[in-house]
Amino acid sequence: DSEKRFGWKKLQEKVPTVKQFQKDFKDQSAVGVGIVCGKVSGRLECLDIDCKNDLTGTLWSDFLAELEDQAPGLIQCFFIETTINKGYHLVYRLRDQDPDGNLKLANSKTGEVLIETRGEGGYFACVPTAGYNVFQGSLLKLPVISEDEREILFGVARSFHHITEEVYEQKELSEYEGLTPFDAYDLDPKKSLELIESVGWK
To answer: How far apart are the first and last CA of the chain?
Structure first.
């Protein structure tokens, strides 16, 4: 409702007042909560891990293991919620920089997005929206991470990207029984020269 009432552009630049929130959430039967990312929310960014597109079934556990290996204890800092699609949102704020726009960090072998960010100009649904549940931490106590910690987080996310390579079928060259163009030129260079000049070459 806030988006309809105030416009998406305004929501990216200014936090609605308490009165505006009260009006929007008057009808409790239609409550769905979304958080706008970026500078307006204090450099807030969300890492969205979309397990519905995971063909292995182990994306989340593999991600946790790799992050723990690269930066022991870092995962425990984040607010984490489970999503309606059985994925995960890792939510944090940036200390040293403004968030980028939404970034795709990893795709599956079939090209579906596995891990992406919600940054400047983006938003994500969150608790208490139906289908979203707190996994760890609190939205009221978001961690602030450094640029180096973000680079580790993104590096781990990108390690799950599957590059799909197009396979080209190489055609076999058929045996040519006549003269090759090079042989023909060697036998009669004058004729070849006339042919080239006839189409405008000099």
So the answer is: 71
- In whole angstroms, give the CA distance from residue 107 to residue 86: 17
* Three-class SS state of 158: helix
**pLDDT reported for residue 71:** 97
Q: How far apart are CA 157 and CA 172, in angstroms?
A: 41
Residue 119, token pair as written in the block: 């940054």
| pLDDT tens column, 156-177 | 999 999 875 555 566 565 565 6
Which pair of tokens denotes residue 176? 């040519």
| Residues 32-88 pLDDT 10s | 788 999 999 999 999 999 999 998 999 999 999 999 999 999 999 999 999 998 899
Long-range contacts from 62-68, C-beta under 8 angstroms, 24+ separation = 62/160, 63/115, 63/156, 63/157, 63/160, 66/156, 66/159, 67/152, 67/153, 67/156
Of 93, 138, 133, 87, nearest to 113 by C-alpha is: 87
The pTM (predicted TM-score) of the whole model is 0.71
**Distance from C-alpha of 5 to C-alpha of 154, rounded to nearest angstrom:** 35
DSSP 8-state class, residue 109:
T
Q: How many residues does the chain have?
A: 202
Answer for the pair 118, 46: CB distance below 8 angstroms, yes or no. yes
- Angstrom distance (rounded) from CA 68 to CA 62: 10
